[in-house]
Amino acid sequence: MSEMSFEQMLEESFKTIRNGEVVEGTVIDVKPDEIVLNIGYKSDGIITRNEYTNEANVDLTTLVSVGDTMEAKVLKVNDGEGQVLLTYKRLAAEKGSKRLEEAFENKEVLTAKVAQVLDGGLCVIVDETRVFIPASLVSDSYEKDLSKYKDQDIEFVISEFNPKRRRIIGDRKQLLVAKKLEQQKELFAKIKVGDVMEGTVKNVTDFGAFIDLGGADGLLHISEMSWGRVESPKKVFNVGDHVRVFIKDINDTKIALSMKFPAENPWNGAAEKYAVGNVVKGKVARMTDFGAFVELAPGVDALLHVSQIAKEHIEKPSDVLKVGQEIEAKIVDFNEDEKKISLSIKALLAPETNESEDADVAVIVAVPSPTAVTTPLFLSTTATERSSDVHTTFSSAVDGVISAVSVVCLLTFNASSPPEI
Fold first, then answer.
1. Rounded to whole angstroms, how far apart are CA atoms 173 and 142?
2. Rounded to an integer, what distance in angstroms lies between the CA atom of residue 253 and that of residue 9?
3. E-assigned strands of 147-290?
4. Which phi and psi angles does 115 have, rounded to 5°?
5. Long-range CB pairs of 193-198, under 8 A, 24+ apart, other chains included
6. Long-range CB contacts (< 8 A, 24+ apart) of 232-238?
7. Helix, strand or coil for residue 306?
8. Lesser CB count within 10 Å: N end or C end of the chain?
9. 3-state class of 257 per DSSP?
10. What phi and psi, each to the nearest 5 degrees, are found at residue 146?
11. Which of the four pLDDT bands, split at 50, 70 and 90, describes residue 143?
């Protein structure tokens, strides 16, 4: 047997490797975009940034240190420059795929950081294996903006595993639903009608707001938001607001809430405050053809009928009033049982002094005749003529009498200038 040359012996001392083989090596150099491994081969192994992680622009010096040992998979024995091209990412993905398969079969709950927020959902990485979580499975309620989940650690389960089609689907929603069912059971076991609770506004609609009570949602209807009038819940609440409410009703799993606390009822003490005859101030809240509704306090409205707005005739309230106008009026009726109050502006107006024109005067003169038959004489004159006409009529009657004369005069006249007879 011939002696081998030094080069031959050196080459024989190195192991042989093949594409696809898994090798173990020690890090001998790290650059921001490259890792150099001593794999016990005649050439060093190179792992580029793209073959180490799926994270773009990551600095490898922050992840790997000289002296670390790691496994990698051979991509090319000779990359064209005499080096062995390795991949850490693909080997980890293969291991991760097996890990995810086991998690899928065992319904295991996994935790991973959200790597990407996509239009249709979230992407997380488990052992260098991508898992897609559709937007419909991210939460138990619709969320338009998923950007808040970026770089957040979230829990999920694998609901579909098909590596051949590169389809691995995660589901976070079912975990939230299961958790809420448990919390709901605990919540309903301890709450009752009348309980005061703290909650968070979860959603706002045109008819009310849904409040998260920590295990179950309750509906705060628009009519229960305030003792006063609420035009739109969206003008009062925002998602995330913290509110104090009390339970008005419980029906199976439905909870009705209210913010109209009895102690804050504006009708408390209303009988004294709004007693008939009291003069109050208020703001015109709305108008109809028959009158205007005036807000005396939040939750206390009174009717100012069109006939009570002024002494003169008014066709409709909007002719003289406008919404938001502050007025002063008198309470003319109060019904606490029906929560009704009637107002009058007209009752505050001073009565007018009516100076009527000269009134007519009717005069009846009865003169007994010698035969005892009375002949009445009727005269109708104005106030300016009545004095002379009465005297003339009376003189004519006296001339014709033989005995005593009775004169009866019925006068209707202006009290400010009584006639002289």
1. 11
2. 81
3. 153-162, 167-171, 196-204, 208-212, 217-221, 242-251, 254-258, 279-287
4. -90, -35
5. 193/247, 193/248, 193/249, 193/250, 194/246, 194/247, 195/246, 195/247, 196/244, 196/245, 196/246, 197/244, 197/245, 197/246, 197/247, 198/242, 198/243, 198/244
6. 232/206, 233/204, 233/205, 233/206, 233/207, 233/208, 233/209, 234/204, 234/206, 237/201, 237/204, 237/209, 238/201, 238/204
7. helix
8. N
9. strand
10. -100, 5
11. confident
The single-letter code of the amino acid at 216 is: A
Contact between residue 270 and residue 238 where contact means Cβ atoms under 8 Å apart: no
First to last CA, the chain: 176
And the tokens for 237? 């609440």
Among residues 222, 214, 221, 177, the alpha carbon closest in space to that of 197 is found at 214
**What does DSSP assign to residue 15?**
P
6-65 residue pLDDT tens: 565 555 555 678 888 999 999 999 999 999 999 988 889 999 999 998 777 899 999 999
User: What DSSP element (H or E) covers 389?
Assistant: helix 386-399
The neighbouring-strand residues paired with 366 are 376
Contact 225, 211 (CB under 8 A): no
What is the Cα–Cα distance from 302 to 342, expressed in whole angstroms?
6
Indicate yes or no: pTM above 0.70: no
Q: Which two tokens stand for residue 382?
A: 């104005």
Instruction: Give pLDDT tens digits for 183-208.
Output: 999 999 999 999 999 999 999 999 99
Pairing of strands 242-251, 196-204: antiparallel
Q: Which two tokens stand for residue 230?
A: 């609420």
**Structure token digits, residue 133:** 């979580």
Whether the Cβ atoms of residue 345 and residue 327 lie closer than 8 Å to each other = yes
User: What is the C-alpha separation between 283 and 123, in angstroms, rounded?
Assistant: 57
